[in-house]
Design brief:
The complex is a heterotetramer, with two copies of chain A and two copies of chain B. Chain A is an alpha+beta fold. Chain A is built from four helices and five strands; from the N terminus they run E-H-H-E-E-H-E-E-H. In chain A, helix 1 runs antiparallel to helix 2 and helix 2 packs antiparallel against helix 3. Chain B is α/β, with parallel strands linked by helices. Classes of the chains: A alpha+beta, B alpha/beta. Chains A and B meet through helix 1, helix 2 and helix 3 of A and helix 2 and helix 3 of B. Strand 1 of chain A pairs antiparallel with strand 1 of chain C, so a sheet runs across the interface. Bound molecules: adenosine-5'-diphosphate (2 copies).
Chain lengths: 161, 115, 161, 115
């Protein structure tokens, strides 16, 4: 995970209210756009944040509308550059391993949020906050991480020859 | 913010059913309203229910869940449920959820009436 | 001024960086839209916030990009309903009476921000924060405040007859 | 956020001058870039400088200040500066600043070339 110790460039505090989702999407989309993500990517990043907030509202706060939550944004330098988004709440803590995407072949209403978040973002990590509540850290890179950094099979084959 | 839900929903009768046309973004703040309207219409068991999404620029999984539920009701009652005119961003969530092959999705309301 | 004692529904913390202005405008515009303001009003409210932030960045923080500032939003109930926006900083304190729109007949670059803020918003108040920095409170009502509440000349005339 | 300024600026030569076409929102993050480009062009003293704002959906007072400065330079050097194709939101800030009567503002680039 990238360095979370520096202060976020932008941090939003809000209540657990669905009617605020549209404003958050507008904020997220514009931040992503500024960082160079294309229109489809901006839409998908906004969607991932929307899904994560819906989960905090419905599961974390059990649809109560007076829960507090925070969304923080960091522009990531490096190659490839990217965007880190952290969502924190004061809701009940659960075992991060229980937050799982479901089998998509089982077609039923609901159960898509975590799948969407994992599909859209490059790195997704749930954890308990030391104080209280949960923290979700999501990273999206501007381009796929360079293949050169992964074990490169074609080169290995050449070496073996 | 104290304003009422922003989603508007229009309906139109066609020969063998109904066209439902939501106007606005569909997220957790208005999915319940869409759900209620759909179940109202499905109570009258139309042979064909066309959902025209041309005026829906955005949908999250609470909207998708509502449509999956409507599709299951349609299957049970033997009626046709058809989605049409999805904008790119909305199509994208159906693809991510791998539901683009599960729903009947066509380009226009006319296509949906002919299906 | 309306009651500021309740917690804002949305509060944004950011650094004094011009490249963040577009994201703030998107947030403000969507919040205003949700409250029922029309497209032109949403654009003007975003503009007023943009101008206020530009002033904090250029005058308050002297264009330093590591100053902190906060933007808080309250939906106002009542008739007419409206939106209250408060901008706070940790910059140098100045006498609020020095923050004045200039004479528009003197056409020169600059000097429009305060005029725009006052023209767009219904209520504009600058003050020193007790701790440090400045606070700007802006209110925009959804409709002009009802004439019935102002001295109504036509009715007075009827009464006098 | 580390991305370079988002404003793009195109220029086109016309018979007696230049058309400058900024593309994007003009605010404090990019007004300096617009100012630099304008002063570069004005150094060459074109008889006519047309600023086509059709692709500018938003402008704040730092953009307006830049245009006022350019207009003052144009007046000093005896060249014509004409704004054209303002979108509604951009026109609104010129009206609020009561500058809509100070600038020469026309609807199209062709109108500006003929003025
Ligand atoms: N923020 C959260 N707090 C608690 N539990 C969560 C959270 N996010 C997800 N979960 C758990 O993960 C499951 C899968 O979430 P998701 O894929 O979004 O589907 P759905 O929300 O429709 O159940 C949820 O049913 C819930 O048990
Ligand atoms: N947030 C602020 N902090 C300090 N001074 C301010 C602030 N906002 C406005 N001012 C003062 O008010 C004056 C008028 O501001 P404005 O109308 O925006 O024009 P400009 O910023 O172009 O000078 C500024 O020149 C400055 O002296």
């Amino acid at each position: 995970m990238a360095d979370t110790s520096t202060e976020p460039e932008v941090k939003l505090q809000m209540f657990s209210q669905p009617r605020l989702l549209a404003a958050v999407r507008a904020l997220v989309g514009t931040i992503a756009q500024r960082l160079g993500f294309n229109e489809m990517q901006c839409g998908q990043i906004s969607l991932a944040v929307d899904e994560a907030l819906c989960n905090v509202i419905t599961h974390g706060y059990d649809r109560r509308d007076d829960g507090r939550l925070w969304i923080s944004f960091w522009a990531l330098d490096g190659d490839p550059s990217g965007l880190k988004i952290v969502i924190e709440d004061q809701a009940a803590q659960i075992d991060p391993s229980e937050i799982q995407p479901r089998d998509l072949d089982d077609i039923r209403p609901g159960g898509l949020g975590v799948h969407i978040i994992r599909e859209v973002m490059d790195d997704v990590q749930y954890e308990r906050r030391p104080e209280q509540g949960m923290r979700l850290t999501m990273i999206k890179h501007l381009r796929p991480v360079d293949d050169a950094r992964r074990p490169d099979t074609s080169r290995q084959e050449r070496v073996e020859q | 913010m104290s304003k009422a839900e922003e989603l508007q929903i229009e309906t139109d009768d066609i020969t063998d059913g109904v066209v439902l046309r939501p106007i606005g973004e569909i997220d957790l703040s208005c999915a319940a309203m869409l759900r209620q309207r759909l179940s109202q219409i499905q109570d009258s068991q139309p042979a064909r229910l066309v959902i025209d999404l041309s005026a829906v620029p955005y949908m999250d999984s609470s909207g998708v869940a509502t449509l999956v539920e409507a599709m299951q009701i349609a299957r049970r009652t033997g009626s046709k449920l058809i989605l049409c005119a999805l904008q790119d961003k909305v199509r994208s969530i159906f693809e991510i959820a791998r539901l683009d092959m599960v729903f009947a999705i066509v380009d226009t309301v006319d296509d949906a009436a002919a299906l």
